[in-house]
Design goal:
This protein is of the alpha+beta class and 474 residues long. It contains 18 helices and 14 strands. It is a single-pass membrane protein.
């Protein structure tokens, strides 16, 4: 046989792998998929827990450029970053990218939450959630949130010489969620709920190998218990609605009351459960971490402390004793919220996120095959000196004119049509909590080690213990 014919026959299968319909395919991004199943998962998780994840990702970007392939949590993955990457992720419709998360997140939170839905389903469920979480609705609950905050401070802060901030903030934000979103009163059921919830979130960023005694296995079991409790709660709320309960007394009741054209419930029971679990995770962890790191900042920066205190005391002095905050009061906390946004820029609670390609797509001249994950990282734009000059400097005045910040560069809550619907809820929680804290207490850090790790949220050393002095009774 002619040697050239033989080579042609041997190379023909490779040719078909590299072409489609006679056209050369773009090459996949540079990088390595690493060890099967594990890939770079352990390296990333190790970097997160030693607070070197940003450096780990930056070194990868320096080596391979703004797009590279890797393997995370059992899936081939393409890492992208930058303003254009953020825009691509947050504006792509369901025909190119699906909202699918890692197997561990999907198996724990469920496959009918906003992180998973695309197209019309995403729009339908998002609109339903927004009907309760939009500012026009939430402004009616400012007093209810403040009641939870004041009760928490009286129980856990007043009269104490030392407190550990992060676990207390997690307790507070969970109680606000239980009260406002579920209408679940204090007691044994709420206590069990928080115990299962804590177990559930521990394994969300883990390798999804369901074996006994693993973190992932414990999280799956806890997730099943949380879902069972939510189904029971939905049954109770549905019964209360039939007896004439107000349709907007909490989030679950609100979702149950929304009807479609056929007068059936617009949001299914699974969609209510999975999205309530998502909001639990987002509202509990994001807000508690943000408030904790603001408290940490105020202990370290006297100039910012004095500016925030001045703004909050002006609001307090304009009100009668024990008079509750109003929506208008929150609108006056402009500098305090700029401090919060700069905290979100420098220490974003959400490290990054995932999408999944629905089809082969081209990005920046490379092919990203169908079924691969796309991984984006928040801090890669937050700490970009071309976008935020002197990015390591803490400067709340960057947000004096938030409109001047280029779109898709500040993304702690996502962006575009994918921005978190709970953004305003997190803002209200934060401002309502900071007001009585700073007007009633002073504090200083107890721990000399002022570092933190990610697991996957930022966790200060020892949970941020502080020495506490009460200025006045609550």
């Amino acid at each position: 046989m002619n040697i050239f014919l033989l080579l042609s026959l041997l190379l023909l299968p490779i040719f078909f792998l590299l072409t489609r319909r006679g056209k050369p395919l773009k090459r996949v991004p540079p990088g390595s998929l690493g060890i099967p199943i594990l890939g770079q998962s352990l390296g990333l998780l190790r970097a997160m827990r030693t607070n070197t994840a940003e450096k780990w990702m930056a070194e990868r970007a320096k080596r391979y450029g703004p797009i590279s392939k890797m393997s995370l949590f059992g899936k081939p993955t393409v890492f992208i970053y930058g303003q254009a990457a953020n825009k691509f992720v947050f504006t792509s419709d369901g025909s190119k990218l699906s909202n699918q998360q890692t197997d561990s997140v999907r198996m724990i939170l469920g496959d009918r939450c906003l992180l998973e839905l695309s197209g019309e389903d995403h729009k339908r469920v998002r609109n339903a959630l927004s009907s309760f979480l939009k500012p026009d609705s939430l402004k009616n609950y400012v007093g209810k949130i403040e009641d939870e905050v004041m009760r928490h401070l009286e129980m856990h802060w007043q009269g104490k010489q030392k407190v550990t901030v992060l676990p207390l903030m997690k307790t507070l934000t969970f109680n606000i969620i239980c009260s406002l979103l579920f209408g679940l009163e204090r007691g044994a059921r709420r206590d069990a709920f928080v115990e299962y919830f804590q177990q559930m979130i521990e394994g969300m960023w883990s390798i999804p190998i369901n074996m006994p005694f693993t973190r992932f296995n414990r999280s799956l079991k806890a997730s099943a218990k949380v879902q069972k409790m939510l189904r029971d709660l939905i049954c109770e709320k549905r019964s209360e609605l039939e007896k004439g309960a107000p349709p907007h007394q909490d989030l679950i009741t609100c979702l149950l009351s929304i009807r479609g054209n056929d007068n059936n419930e617009l949001v299914s029971e699974d969609e209510i459960i999975h999205n309530v679990m998502l909001i639990m995770v987002a509202g509990h962890d994001t807000s508690s971490v943000l408030i904790t790191f603001i408290i940490r900042l105020l202990a370290n920066d006297k100039t910012i402390l004095e500016a925030v205190l001045k703004e909050q005391e002006e609001i307090r002095n304009s009100k009668l004793s024990r008079e509750l905050l109003t929506w208008e009061d929150l609108g006056k906390m402009k500098y305090t919220w700029r401090v919060a946004m700069e905290t979100l820029r420098t220490t974003p609670p959400i490290f990054g996120g995932f999408r999944k390609t629905v089809e082969d797509i081209e990005y920046e001249g490379y092919l990203i095959p169908k079924g691969w994950q796309i991984f984006w990282v928040t801090s890669m734009t937050h700490m970009d000196g071309d976008i935020f000059p002197e990015p390591s400097k803490f400067d709340p005045d960057r947000f004096g004119n938030a409109a001047a910040i280029p779109p898709y560069c500040f993304v702690p809550f996502g962006g575009g049509p994918r921005i978190c619907p709970g953004y305003e809820f997190a803002k209200i929680e934060t401002l309502v909590t900071i007001h009585p804290l700073i007007t009633h207490f002073t504090w200083k850090l107890c721990c000399k080690d002022d570092s933190f790790r990610r697991d996957p949220m930022p966790v200060p050393t020892q949970g941020l213990p502080v020495q506490l002095v009460s200025k006045k009774l609550l």
